[in-house]
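Protein modeling request. Please complete all fields; requests missing the sequence field cannot be processed.
Requester role: graduate student
Desired output: 3D structure, token encoding
Chains: 1
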Amino acid sequence: MSRCLNYQLLSLALLLLMTVDPSSQSRSTEENGVKSAVFLSPKIVLEPGSVSNKFYYNIDFPKGHIAIKNFDAEVVDEAGNSVPLHETYLHHWVVVRYYRQKGVEVAKYHGNLGFHQSDFIVKRNSGICDGGLTQYFGLGSETRKTITYVPDPYGIEVGNPAEVPPGYEERWLLNVHAIDTRGAEDRLGCTECRCDLYNVTKDEYDRNIEPDYVGGLRCCYDETRCRVKEGFQGARRSLYLKYTVKYIDWDPSIVPVKIYILDVTDTWKKPDKSTPTVSRHHCKIEYLVESCSAAEANADCTHTKKISVTFPSGGDVIYGVAHQHTGGTGSALHGEDGRVICSSLPIYGEGKEPGNEAGYIVGMSSCYPRPGSIKISEGETVTLISNYSSAQRHTGVMGLFYLLVAEPSPTPNSFLHSTDGTGEIVILHNAVGVLAVFGIALLVGAAVIYQRRNQREEEGYESVLM
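Delivered output (466 residues):
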């Protein structure tokens, strides 16, 4: 009987040991209360050389007062297959939050309204550019391999009815800029929007393009066409932006984060004390990287652009990532004392399959500081640095930095709130593991004690409590 009970205790201990093996732990977000919704954008019709840069209003989006935990997107065909960047280059996609007056209807696709009317109110992120870069979410070619998960206990709060102006309702806008490069005469030139390849002299607002503007967004607007090889034939096809939103119902225990987007082209200058006017943050969004001289060709041809701006409010940095184009070699944000707040490096593809396309940035490394370890003070001057290879000229490049910042608070228990290498949340995983191992130790100890006691009783010894 004693041996039977002993074996049962040992079997139970082994069973528990198997259940805490990390490789066998479920990472299903549903078990952690995280909901996932997958949507498709309206149809994007492209043919070789063509460009689509449309704005889609009132897109499908989760309803209610929620906290966004993750937002991923990629271009797919009608069968749901991922489309590689060397066929359709995803220049960018952005998602903007706005309020629409009740009773006002707008078609799913509409030209860029610019929100210069009372029917629409943009709910901007927290800054800092004036006018542009208002999005809550958005990436480009790097979308498939950039981790964007918001760690616990944080979340991006949306859908709060208390924030919606009377007579309005919350809606979401999607802008997708895609370029079909099948059969392109110069694929890189098409993705960098070189004006000579698009054969345009006026921008989408019918303004003359200056001779020194050799490439960028003004030359690859909606319905333009990049030059393809003579005689190349390719099918007209319909594509979609598939976007996946992970979220949880809002709860008072969730710590809200603010979204900040910094731009290395910001022309802001710190005003003199004698200057009464307020300097504006005019963000140009894109810039030109000229090739290095022949004398530098064998050296380190690196183009560095940097700006310093005053951060509007303080808090704990929860997440950070940069956005760069082909040729980018990395970006970093530094504090006033020179410390590195976040450094983000590009991941270049090495093959042909979607997510690993050679010559393209397919991901950007992201920062997840230990909660409370990296802070920015209100009014602190931060410096953004963006590096590109200048071994050849690059047009229309970008140097953006996306940050999530939470109000200063006591350091959360990182033992209970952490993320794994994929950005998926692991709630209480370590705690459960430690407690389970501790329980196993007690069970094994009890089994050994029980075995020894029975042996001693059988041999005439008194039992000793250990």
